[in-house]
């Protein structure tokens, strides 16, 4: 899955985990069809809609006369609405000779229309037509010298066209009205456009979206195409993505799921067709192939009328049919190897049926029986017993087929084949029925809990609609999926496992090494184009001039929003009531962490491998899972969080079980030996992870020097000298220190206090926490460039500047600066100069009042763009450009965003925790909101001159030694290589 602004694969995959509704048959249940009539205007058009009994979303599903599907759910968590506009067209619909087209198109849909994003459409169109014709000529020319000439023409004409374009005007409009999360993603079956909008801006948003989905203008095409090149290069630097691509290619040798990737081949990326993109848009972006999904603070009748007003007049179209390629059975294991710098692992993948089949639902059950993070066979037999470093399993539902995958990482000295055999053994146990039948019921119960949690968020509610629409799953079937899931029997699990999981798998060994087939998309010669920051289209001016009823902000009042009480031994209790469902969250928080005691983190990690005097470690996990509760102990540098979450009806039982774990953990020498060996292997693997190297190791080195919080760890000798009882004693001591208790749940105060006083075991007198080791933040006295060698296509850079300590007085201007500079950096480095797919800059306030703020700026680019990328970022940091339109947008965005933000649920408690760390006793957003309208650009400039411009920098660079331009690096300061031993401390 690829996205316009870097929506990660993980988050996109997560969006599907709770919507895996995969059944072919369902119980007959009448779908209610109702007619909505506005009582105030009886002559108005009447709208029929569908509802489903016992629907937790209380959804209404409408179908407009032109075929547009509309899914609505009223969930008033805040005066905001999560929106998705879904198109039933993804990379599987790409022409075979133009892969990546759906993804190209996704980017183009953000470029405006014939009215939005242009200063003179007629003149711009003349140049865009020339560019389109040149690209057709370019892709049909094979002579390289001639191709270069044609591309030079494209570049030249694009520069002229850009003088009429107004870059990023769509994004400016959305940010100005307080929209958040403006994005999109393309995957195999779908393209989905995302916005989280304020309720009072719904009509403006609907009109804007209706306009942009009626016409696609390939504006600023060649610079945006370069951003896609960078996105492709990022994928080529990802071992995980390379493994996934190999798996899909081998599982689906005939179907488009495997024959073409979402982002496209290098050859097709380098030879795009604007004509083909337009044709694709006209075929698939029609209302009868699209849906609007909305969940939030909405009025059903008003919303459907507005949608019909702006979308109902769009003509439907003839959507091309899709013929599903029939895959032949895999007869024997297909074995592949992927090489790259990351740590080694092995993956086993199977082809499974499409999402709408009953068997696919059973595959989901099998996936949960194997791995659910708590009590699956892989959880208990491999991870909990430390037979591998880490392992997991999951299923990926798609329309025509699906896939099931198990992945494992080896321990030190363990071969990938040994990991493979252990994974296959767990699957074999499923096939033979060697698991407790009650585990099925536990999976069902926890599925209900996870769904309940998911539906506390409008994103998940609206995404459920997207799943229903994209996979052509009737809403009644979707709603009934939990009941269908609960009906799965043990015998059915065994039958399906034996049907699909045999020697018909793809086996991929991910080994550490240099990839001999490494590729990259070469950088074409691109001249930066104008972005016309201060220009405004007539459409933009009219849009902004429309009156909207303003919404008033709601700020937290900690004294009113949080109930404070005392437990025994004067333990503070902070409580916020859950008025929505029967779930609870309980936390014990200690203001001590690994900076107080290095062994604390080791002890916390050790706990999950231990049993008690009553239960084995495996039995404990099963007991918690059966209760619908889970526990966790987390340590940071300065805090320990002990948490218990789950069904409040089982609160006392869960609390008793959890307290027994803390009080009666049983030492286990073998578990400790295995854990220490695992830690050492994980440390070695971390040195192969470029994200850890840059974002953690190098950043900590720059902030604190060679001895810092990241690399201050127990040595191998010290680790091996730790005794089991020593760690158990640390675990038992956690509740004996001064701490506080946070609770979010449905209980009344008196009942909660009584339950905690009975169940929370503490001594008669609590001990003060030991002193924390404080790491001194170093001053950047001279500009320095730190670099680390890593085998990669791109180079990634962080510009880091230390600023003043935290002060609440500058927070309003900090928020405005970040809002303003976010758009400026994106416009300049991506849209104008096409230097990066991902780039950002922000001033980061400290998380504690005695710590410094930092300016952090990032850009990831091809190594041969290093000089331009560094110069581009440095110029913006040194001379912040004045763009009045951007500034006005930033101010409006800040106020509109805050006026519709609502901090709720457990978030209230943790916002209070954050405020206390900063010495605040009120919601700091009040200051930002009150200042936003009155702040001037001069104030912003003053802030930039004082805290950003010419501040001493540390520039952190990670890239391949043979690709980095060290002469360029030397222009920015003394260049120093950082070896991994120095960075990691081992």
TrEMBL record:
Annotated Peptidase M16 C-terminal domain residues: 275-445, 767-879
Any coiled-coil regions, as ranges: 121-148
Keyword Zinc-finger belongs to the record: no
Cofactor(s) annotated in UniProt: Zn(2+)
Highest taxon of source: Bacteria
Signal peptide residues on this chain, from the entry's feature table: 1-21
Swiss-Prot/TrEMBL keywords: Coiled coil, Hydrolase, Metal-binding, Metalloprotease, Protease, Signal, Zinc
InterPro entries in the record: Metalloenz_LuxS/M16, Pept_M16_N, Pept_M16_Zn_BS, Peptidase_M16, Peptidase_M16_C
Domain Peptidase M16 N-terminal: start-end pairs: 76-116, 604-696
Pfam families found in the cross-reference section: Peptidase_M16, Peptidase_M16_C
Family listed: Belongs to the peptidase M16 family.
Name used for this protein in its record: M16 family metallopeptidase
Organism listed in the record: Pontibacter locisalis
């Amino acid at each position: 899955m690829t996205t316009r602004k870097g929506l990660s694969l993980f988050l996109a995959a997560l969006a599907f985990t709770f919507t895996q509704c995969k059944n072919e048959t369902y119980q007959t249940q009448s779908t209610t069809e109702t007619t909505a009539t506005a009582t105030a205007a009886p002559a108005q058009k009447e709208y029929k809609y569908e509802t489903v009994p016992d629907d937790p979303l209380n959804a209404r599903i409408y179908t407009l006369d032109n075929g547009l599907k509309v899914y609505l759910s009223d969930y008033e968590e805040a005066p905001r609405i999560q929106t998705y506009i879904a198109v039933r067209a993804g990379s599987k619909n790409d022409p075979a000779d133009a892969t990546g087209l759906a993804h190209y198109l996704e980017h183009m849909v953000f470029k405006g229309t014939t009215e939005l994003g242009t200063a003179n459409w007629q003149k711009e169109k003349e140049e865009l037509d020339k560019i389109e014709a040149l690209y057709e000529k370019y892709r049909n020319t094979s002579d390289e010298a001639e191709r270069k000439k044609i591309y030079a023409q494209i570049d030249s004409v694009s520069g002229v066209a850009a003088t009429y374009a107004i870059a990023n005007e769509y994004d400016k409009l959305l940010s100005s009205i307080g929209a958040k999360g403006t994005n999109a993603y393309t995957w195999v079956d779908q393209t989905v456009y995302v916005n989280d909008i304020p309720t009072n801006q719904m009509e403006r948003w609907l009109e804007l979206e209706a306009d942009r989905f009626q016409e696609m203008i390939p504006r600023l095409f060649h610079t945006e195409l370069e951003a896609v090149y960078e996105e492709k290069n990022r994928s080529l630097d990802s071992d995980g993505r390379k493994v996934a691509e190999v798996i899909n290619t081998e599982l689906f040798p005939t179907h488009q799921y495997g024959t073409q990737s979402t982002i496209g081949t290098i050859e097709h990326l380098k030879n795009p067709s604007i004509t083909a993109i337009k044709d694709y848009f006209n075929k698939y972006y029609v209302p009868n192939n699209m849906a609007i999904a909305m969940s939030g603070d909405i009025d059903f009748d008003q919303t459907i009328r507005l949608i019909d007003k702006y979308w109902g007049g769009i003509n439907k179209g003839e959507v091309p049919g899709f013929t599903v390629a029939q895959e032949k059975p895999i007869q024997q294991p297909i074995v592949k190897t992927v090489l790259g710098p990351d740590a080694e692992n092995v993956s086993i993948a199977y082809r499974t049926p499409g999402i709408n089949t009953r068997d696919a639902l059973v595959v989901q059950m099998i996936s949960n029986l194997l791995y659910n993070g708590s009590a699956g066979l892989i959880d208990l037999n491999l991870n909990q017993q430390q037979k591998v470093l880490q392992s997991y399993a999951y299923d990926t539902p798609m329309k025509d087929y699906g896939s099931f995958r198990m992945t494992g990482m080896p321990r030190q000295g363990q071969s990938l084949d040994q990991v493979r055999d252990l994974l296959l053994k767990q699957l074999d146990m499923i096939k033979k029925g060697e698991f407790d039948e009650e585990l099925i019921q536990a999976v069902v119960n926890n599925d209900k809990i996870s769904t309940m949690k998911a539906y506390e968020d409008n994103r998940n509610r609206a995404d459920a609609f997207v799943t229903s629409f994209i996979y052509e799953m009737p809403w009644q079937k979707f709603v009934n999926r939990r009941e269908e899931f609960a009906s799965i029997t043990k015998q059915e699990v065994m039958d399906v496992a034996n049907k699909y999981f045999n020697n018909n798998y793809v086996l991929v060994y991910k080994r550490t090494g240099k990839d001999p087939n490494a590729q990259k998309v070469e950088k074409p010669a691109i001249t930066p184009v104008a972005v016309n920051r201060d220009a405004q289209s007539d459409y933009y001016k009219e849009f902004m001039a429309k009156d909207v009823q303003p919404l008033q902000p709601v700020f937290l009042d900690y004294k009113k929003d949080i109930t404070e009480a005392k437990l025994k031994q004067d333990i503070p209790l902070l409580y916020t009531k859950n008025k929505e469902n029967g779930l609870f969250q309980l936390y014990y928080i200690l203001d001590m962490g690994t900076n107080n005691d290095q062994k604390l983190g080791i002890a916390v990690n050790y706990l999950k491998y231990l049993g008690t005097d009553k239960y084995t470690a495996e039995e404990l996990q099963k007991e918690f899972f059966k209760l619908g509760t889970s526990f966790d102990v987390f340590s940071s540098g300065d805090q320990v969080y002990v948490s218990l979450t789950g069904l409040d009806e089982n609160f006392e039982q869960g609390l008793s079980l959890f307290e027994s774990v803390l009080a009666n953990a049983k030492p286990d020498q073998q578990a400790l030996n295995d854990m220490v060996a695992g830690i050492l292997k994980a440390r070695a693997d971390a040195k192969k992870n470029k994200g850890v190297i840059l974002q953690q190791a190098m950043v900590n080195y720059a902030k604190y020097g060679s001895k810092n919080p990241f690399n201050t760890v127990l040595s191998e000798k010290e680790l091996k000298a730790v005794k089991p009882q020593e760690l158990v004693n640390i675990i038992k001591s956690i509740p004996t220190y001064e701490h506080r208790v946070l609770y979010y749940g449905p209980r009344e105060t008196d009942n909660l206090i009584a339950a905690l006083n009975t169940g929370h075991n503490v001594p008669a007198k609590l001990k003060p926490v030991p002193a924390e080791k404080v790491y001194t933040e170093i001053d950047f006295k001279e500009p320095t460039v730190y670099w680390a060698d890593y085998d990669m296509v791109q180079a990634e850079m962080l510009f880091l500047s230390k600023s003043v300590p935290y002060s609440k007085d500058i927070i309003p201007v900090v928020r405005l600066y970040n809002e303003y500079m976010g758009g400026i950096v994106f416009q300049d480095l991506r849209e104008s100069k096409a230097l990066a797919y991902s780039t950002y800059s922000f001033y980061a306030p400290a998380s504690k009042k005695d710590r410094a703020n930092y300016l952090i700026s990032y850009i990831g680019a091809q190594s041969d763009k290093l000089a331009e990328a560094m110069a581009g970022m440095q110029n913006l940091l040194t001379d912040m450009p004045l763009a009045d339109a951007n500034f006005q947008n930033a101010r409006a965005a800040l106020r509109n965003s805050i006026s519709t933000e609502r901090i709720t649920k457990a978030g209230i408690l943790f916002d209070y925790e954050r405020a206390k760390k900063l010495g605040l006793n009120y919601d700091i957003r009040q200051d930002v909101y009150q200042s936003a309208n009155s702040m001037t650009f001069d104030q912003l400039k003053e802030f930039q001159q004082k805290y950003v411009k010419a501040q001493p920098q540390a520039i952190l660079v990670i890239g391949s030694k043979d690709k980095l331009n060290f002469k360029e690096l030397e222009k920015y300061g003394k260049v120093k290589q950082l070896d991994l031993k120095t960075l990691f401390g081992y």
